[in-house]
């Protein structure tokens, strides 16, 4: 089987990989002891990549599917703490029980959700709240079983990872922790989306904002209510390993961009965009609107969870105040600023947001006036909305991201000429 890449795909991948490698090389090269790219700008670039993943997920939900959501920041926080707990237990407590328990819990919950979904489809006339109750019962039972099985597997997995070189084992645990963080948010978003997605767009936004506030309260009391003493609740979680290099963040960002592009150019992508345009027309065409909304919500939340896991390992410290509901408007502003329904605009606006707000304005403004950057950037946003309401890039997309119609496999047959018809009639 031969895999063919068109010109735009090759150019995009080459440029993206080159940018990732150039930034990492500039940070690693230290001719006089100091890197060519200092720690400050290197950290900002990493945070820009992380916020780009969150914003792409929100753009998928809001820009492409038309569902106004303010829950992205809550899933971002969940992913951050989930991944941090796994790596913390490995590096500080020297055990893989966080990895095995979380993996088994997610596996069993996924299986139970699939089983309940099959059951719900066979029962006619079941209302969303009753279905949600069935899912909830399955989640609690499967989570309990997952904790038991994961705890039993912790010893053998710890021994297996300990037999590997320390640096390699640490990277493996980190990679799995990031994937598990995305799995946590995907499962939770599926469960939350079942009853919430029955609401209208505005009410859906309010409900997801409430979810973000609930997550913040749970993180404040993670050491008491949830029982995770290592998270330290409102004091903030410390001793998280510094593992989110630009290479890791660039890799995950590239995967998310490609996955989003492929999804949007597929039949599922066209279906979810049709829901944004006109739900009634989509239903009339036989599209399951609720399923498309739920699919989009889960994928967007998955991206936020992965981004949160990467963010947790940049500064090595997490505090619940980072994930309060006020900050939940940041990805929304980025999406609108970059352009609704534009992946390219979202990525550019994400890096611009971080580099300008936390980099340029912080350094340009006089000492003692750094907080005035929160006055300058809203003015820039207002000017942007007045001068270019469609966003920074509007409907523009990089050539690779644009949908390319496949060529016809068979040339259309030549329509019969009048002479041909006459000959056939004779």
Commentary on this structure:
This protein has helices at 7-28, 39-64, 72-91, 97-122, 128-162, 166-196, 201-220, 246-264, 267-277, 279-284, 289-315, 329-338, 343-364, 373-387, 418-425. With 426 residues, the protein is mainly alpha-helical. It has one domain (7-402). The protein is globular. The two termini are 48 Å apart.
Q: Can you give me a brief rundown of this structure?
A:
This protein is mostly helical and 426 residues long. 70% of the residues lie in helices and 0% in strands.
Which features would summarize this protein structure in a list?
mainly alpha, 15 helices, disordered C terminus
Characterize the biggest β-sheet: none
Global geometry:
globular
Radius of gyration using CA atoms only: 24 Å
* Beta-strand residue fraction: under 5%
Helical amount: 55-70%
| Global mean pLDDT | 86
How many structural domains are formed by the residues?
1
User: How does the helix and strand content classify structurally?
Assistant: mainly alpha
Topology:
Blueprint: H1 7-28, H2 39-64, H3 72-91, H4 97-122, H5 128-162, H6 166-196, H7 201-220, H8 246-264, H9 267-277, H10 279-284, H11 289-315, H12 329-338, H13 343-364, H14 373-387, H15 418-425
Helix pairs in contact: 1-8, 2-8, 2-11, 2-12, 2-13, 3-4, 3-6, 3-7, 3-11, 4-5, 4-6, 5-6, 6-11, 8-11, 9-11, 12-13, 13-14
């Amino acid at each position: 089987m031969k895999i063919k890449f068109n010109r735009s795909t090759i150019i995009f991948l080459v440029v993206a990989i080159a940018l990732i490698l150039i930034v990492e090389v500039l940070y690693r090269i230290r001719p006089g002891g100091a890197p060519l790219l200092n720690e400050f700008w290197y950290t900002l670039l990493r945070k820009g990549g992380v916020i780009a993943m969150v914003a792409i997920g929100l753009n998928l939900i809001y820009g492409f599917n038309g569902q106004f959501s303010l829950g992205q920041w809550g899933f971002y926080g969940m992913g951050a703490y989930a991944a941090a707990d796994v790596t913390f237990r490995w590096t500080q407590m020297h055990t893989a029980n966080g990895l095995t328990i979380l993996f088994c819990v997610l596996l069993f919950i996924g299986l139970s959700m699939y089983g309940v979904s099959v059951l719900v489809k066979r029962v006619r006339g079941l209302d969303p709240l009753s279905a949600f109750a069935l899912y909830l019962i399955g989640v609690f039972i499967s989570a309990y079983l997952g904790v038991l099985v994961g705890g039993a597997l912790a010893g053998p997995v710890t021994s297996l990872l300990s037999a590997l070189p320390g640096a390699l084992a640490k990277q493996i645990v980190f990679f799995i922790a990031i994937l598990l963080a995305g799995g946590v948010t995907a499962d939770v978003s599926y469960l939350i989306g079942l009853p919430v997605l029955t609401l209208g767009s505005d009410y859906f936004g309010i409900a997801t904002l409430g979810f973000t506030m609930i997550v913040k309260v749970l993180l404040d009391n993670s050491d008491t209510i949830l029982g995770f003493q290592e998270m330290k609740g409102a004091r903030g979680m410390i001793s998280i390993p510094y593992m989110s290099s630009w290479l890791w963040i660039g890799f995950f960002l590239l995967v998310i961009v490609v996955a989003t592009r492929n999804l949007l150019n597929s039949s599922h992508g066209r279906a979810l965009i049709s829901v944004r345009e006109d739900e009634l027309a989509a239903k009339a065409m036989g599209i399951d609107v609720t399923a498309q909304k739920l699919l989009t919500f889960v994928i967007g939340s998955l991206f936020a969870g992965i981004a949160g896991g990467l963010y947790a390992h940049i500064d090595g410290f997490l505090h619940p105040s980072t994930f309060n509901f006020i900050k939940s408007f940041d990805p929304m502003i980025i999406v609108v600023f970059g352009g609704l329904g534009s992946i390219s605009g979202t990525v550019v606006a994400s890096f611009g947001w971080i580099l300008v707000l936390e980099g340029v304005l912080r350094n340009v403004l006089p000492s003692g006036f750094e907080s005035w950057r929160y006055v300058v950037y809203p003015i820039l946003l207002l000017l942007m909305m007045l001068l270019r309401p469609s966003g920074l890039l509007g409907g523009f997309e990089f050539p690779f991201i644009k949908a390319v119609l496949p060529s016809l496999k068979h040339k259309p047959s030549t329509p019969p000429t009048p002479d041909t018809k006459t000959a056939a009639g004779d």
